[in-house]
Structures are given as C-alpha cells and as structure tokens.
Design goal:
- The complex is a heterodimer of chains A (about 110) and B (about 110).
- Chain A is mostly beta strands and about 110 residues long.
- Chain A is about 0% helix and about 45% strand.
- In chain A, strands 1-9-8-3-4 form a 5-stranded mixed sheet, with no helix packed on it. In chain A, strands 2-7-6-5 form a 4-stranded antiparallel sheet, with no helix packed on it.
- In chain B, strand 4 and strand 5 form a beta hairpin.
- In chain B, about 35% of the residues are buried.
- The chains are: A mainly beta (about 110), B mainly beta (about 110).
Chain lengths: ~110, ~110
C-alpha cells in the first residue's frame, strides 16, 4: 500500500485557519486521498476525500497538489471541537484490498482558546 | 438518523467467556466492517461484509466470528475471550467498498478481558 507521512502534532488558535499537510510521494493514479479524524474517546469520523481535484464540503476543504504527491486538509476556522487526531489515508481502486482503511499515526491537532 | 449503533459501550469479560458485540446501521449501507484499536497499533481490520450473507476475513480475524443475515446488522462474536482481545472495537459501514465513498463509524465498544 502507498504510504502517507504526516506531522506528529500541530497547534492552532481558535477561529484561525488550519492547514494539515500529508505527503504521499508513492501515490498511484488510482489512489483516492481520504481524511478522517478521531476525537478523544470517539470513533473515527469521515472528513473528506478526493482523487485529483480540490474538494470542499461543510467540514473542510482538501487541496491536492498537481502531481498528487501531497495534499492539505484545510479547516477554515478552527473550533475547540476540531481538536482531534487527523488521519490521511490512501485507498486504491485496484486489487482486493480497496475496502480496507490503513490508519497511520496521524496528526494530533491542538486548538487553543 | 442514528447512523451506526454499537452496543454495549463497555464490557468486562473473564478469560474464556464468550460474547457478542452488536453493530446496527440504518443507512442501508452495503458494506460493513469491524476494526480494533490498540495503543500504538492504529486500527486493524478484523472482518468485513460486502452484503447480506457475505463475510470475509480482515487482517486479524483469529478468535472472532461474524455473520450478516440482514443488511442492517453485523454482530462480532468473541468465541473464547483472551486478555489479548482487550481493545476498543469499532464497527464501520459504507455505501459500498468503493474507495469513492467514506465510512461511517460507530462510537465503539471498550472491552476488557481479565
């Protein structure tokens, strides 16, 4: 499986934008980029996903580099509720393991009031 | 819209006991799966199902059984609990196994085997 690299931790202030980076230099053309987050003592929560183009939804935006070797999850105005571990995950359309989510260590986001 | 509901939220078992972790979804999702989360290990896939009557093994299936008799329910059975099965268990569902869809997770069952 293609691997992702994320910073271990990041810090932000409330109501400021947050840019969470993810490197995936070995990404293949059929890999989707997914982001999940996990709040303390809760299950993972789907945030957003994309293939090639930038994506927006009510929770966040996903900016994908032109060469697709990196992506950035953007939280436009961080709130205290956004404090969580954020996971960047690649999912392929090829092969028999496209159902599986492979969680790495993710980025622990701290939001300061 | 309840999403994915897991019961119980907490459970303590003695070694050798059996139990069933319940998972139900009300979104008519085709795909359902079970993960376990251990400190420092991330989430690991136990079993999954691509539809009623169809199940398959994930990465760590030993000691667990599943069945999928309805679209809504996907229970996970621990046959003879062992301390190594102490973990937090999450059930997840999706419209399909396609990577063009996200997963909805339940809130988890925290299991301790003593």
């Amino acid at each position: 499986d293609a691997k992702t690299t994320q910073p271990n931790s990041m810090e932000s202030n409330e109501e400021e934008p947050v840019h969470l980076p993810c490197n995936h230099s070995t990404i293949s053309g059929t890999d989707y980029i997914h982001w999940y987050r996990q709040l303390p003592s809760q299950g993972p929560e789907y945030v957003i996903h994309g293939l090639t183009s930038n994506v927006n939804n009510r929770m966040a935006s996903l900016a994908i580099a032109e060469d697709r070797k990196s992506s950035t999850l953007i939280l436009h105005r961080a709130t205290l509720r956004d404090a969580a571990v954020y996971y960047c995950i690649l999912r392929s359309t090829d092969g028999g393991s496209n159902y599986k989510l492979t969680f790495g260590k993710g980025t622990l986001l701290t939001v300061n009031p | 819209n309840a999403g994915v509901t897991q019961t119980p939220k907490f459970q303590v078992l003695k070694t050798g006991q059996s139990m069933t972790l319940q998972c139900a979804q009300d979104m008519n999702h085709e795909y359902m799966s079970w993960y376990r989360q251990d400190p420092g290990m991330g989430l690991r896939l136990i079993h999954y199902s691509v539809g009623a009557g169809i199940t398959d093994q994930g990465e760590v299936p030993n000691g667990y059984n599943v069945s999928r008799s309805t679209t809504e329910d996907f229970p996970l059975r621990l046959l003879s609990a062992a301390p190594s099965q102490t973990s937090v268990y999450f059930c997840a569902s999706s419209v399909s196994r396609s990577p063009n869809y996200g997963y909805t997770f339940g809130s988890g069952t925290r299991l301790t085997v003593v």
